[in-house]
Amino acid sequence: MKERKIENCIRVLRFNNGEMTQQELADRVGVTRQTINAIEAAKYSPSLELAFKIACEFDVPLEEVFQYRVE
Amino acid sequence: MSKQEILAWSSLATSSSVVFFYVLIVFGWPDFLPDYAGLFTKIFFNLFWIAVVIEIALELGERKQKVDKDERDFIIEARGLQRAYNFLSFAVAVVVINWFLSDLFGEFSEVHSILGEARTTFHILFIVLFVSNLIKRTTQIYYYRQPV
Lengths: 71, 148
Known about the structure:
The structure holds two protein chains of two kinds. By secondary structure, chain A is α+β, with helices and mostly antiparallel strands. Helix content of chain A is about 55%, strand content about 15%. Chain A has a two-stranded antiparallel ribbon with strand order 1-2. Chain A is globular, with a radius of gyration of 12 Å. Chain B starts with a helix and ends with a helix. Chain B is mainly α. Classes of the chains: A alpha+beta, B mainly alpha. The interface between A and B is medium-sized, with 17 and 17 residues.
């Protein structure tokens, strides 16, 4: 069976945006730091609204932040 | 560890302490076990107060984060509530069925006679309520460590 996984590059985007901390991003999008950490580690798939908020925060399209891969 | 996760741990501690004390008061220490009642009472008593102090400190303490609870916390809480509700429904159904059975067979079976008493049923339902809370909190703690 093919495994489907949502990957993201939030860590890279944070680094490219003035080394933004997880806490700063969490405060800006209205979640806890632990949730940002879980999203980065691909342990939690965010809601569509939160995904768009994160993308807007980095000023990039959604597909640049999240990628859906079938392995 | 997030605030909600710490609250889940402290609630688990307080609920398990309450269940322990309640079972000990109502049913007593089992005869077939060595008498460690005093030792366990001390442990659970301390556990209870430590958990209460942590919960109060969390509520009164300075807020480091702008958000205390978010969508992930709600999803994890919902999973915990679902399992707790399933257990509660099953346990209440068993108690009700047993009540009917004790009405029918109470005269012939001593066990059914004791379980059919209103006082015993109340104790069992009280314990079931706290055990369902234990299930909820344990599920939450589990999912805080697993992919959601």
